[in-house]
Amino acid sequence: MIARTRLVLLVVGLVLLTASPATAGRWTAPDPAGDVTGWSFTPEPPPCGTYTDLDGSEVTQVDIRRLSLRHLRKEVRVRIHYRDLRATGELQVSVTLRTPKRDYSLSLIRWEDGKKPHVDLTGAPDLSDAEPDECGSIAYGSIGFGCRGLVGKARPGLDRVDFRVPRACLRQPRRARVAATTGGQVGDGWYSDTWAPAGVETDWRVPTFGRWVRAPR
After folding, report:
1. Fewest CB atoms less than 10 Å from the CB: which of 21, 40, 41, 42?
2. CA dist., res. 36 & res. 192, Å (int)
3. What's the predicted TM-score (pTM) here?
4. pLDDT (tens digit per residue) in 122-171
5. How far apart are CA 11 and CA 92, in angstroms?
6. pLDDT at 162
7. What is the dihedral of CA 161, 167, 169, 172, to 10 degrees?
8. Measured distance CA(106)–CA(113) in Å, rounded
9. Which of 60-69, 100-109, 110-119, 132-141 bottoms out in mean pLDDT, i.e. has the lowest?
């Protein structure tokens, strides 16, 4: 799995939902609790090493509980709620924003010390037809965009991560939809969760999107 290579930013466990009509201004939907997955790695035997699946049901700091998108006249806002977001510890959040013209990746990376995270906006890779190598890895590149006014914040006291993206950085889309996944190191394991409705199967190469949300007229 790509999550196991940590060839992030966490493009893991994602699947496309059935096309749905656009809503006006705002969309939000829950994610089941206790659905975090985990793994650990040892380098033997070469060349791929050994991955061991871990129970992540009690790992709360990356457990997504709700995802929302708000489409305003000047910006798009994304909010991810968590079961128990911590103030310290490694945190990697990856959001895919789909617009009619192209897909974008929003990322927030916070290291173990909990200091100000790195936030970036890039073009999202299309991995739908990508084939993993012998070790289950996929290498890819993405193009970064300079985006004045881009904001991403982890808010542990509110158990959420917030993004604000100027619509100008997205070419003023008339509508948008969102997908999200989060991961982090806990002890000797790597744990992650992807937003998806209960019962929906996921494919790590294709994002699980919510409904289209229209911009205000």
Report:
1. 21
2. 6
3. 0.86
4. 999 887 777 788 887 877 777 788 899 999 999 999 999 999 999 999 99
5. 11
6. 98
7. 150
8. 22
9. 132-141
**CA atoms 17, 73, 169, 184: torsion sign:** negative
The DSSP bridge pattern shows strands 175-186 and 189-194 to be: antiparallel
Q: Tokens 């994602």 sit at which residue? A: 14
User: Length of the chain, please?
Assistant: 217
Q: Give 19-52 as a DSSP string.
A: P-PPEESEEEEE--TT--EEEEEE-PSTTT-EEE
CB 33 within 8 A of CB 177: no
Q: Hey, what amino acid is at 80?
A: I
Q: Tokens for 78?
A: 């994304």
Nearest to 173 by CA among 106, 29, 73: 73
How many Å apart are CA 17 and CA 26, to the nearest integer? 18
17 Cα distance to chain centroid = 15
> Which tokens belong to 142?
């993405």
Least confident of 88-102, 104-118, 180-194, 197-211: 197-211
**For the chain, what is the radius of gyration of the CA atoms?**
17
Would you report the helix, strand and coil content of the chain in percent, each value rounded to 5? Answer: 5, 40, 55
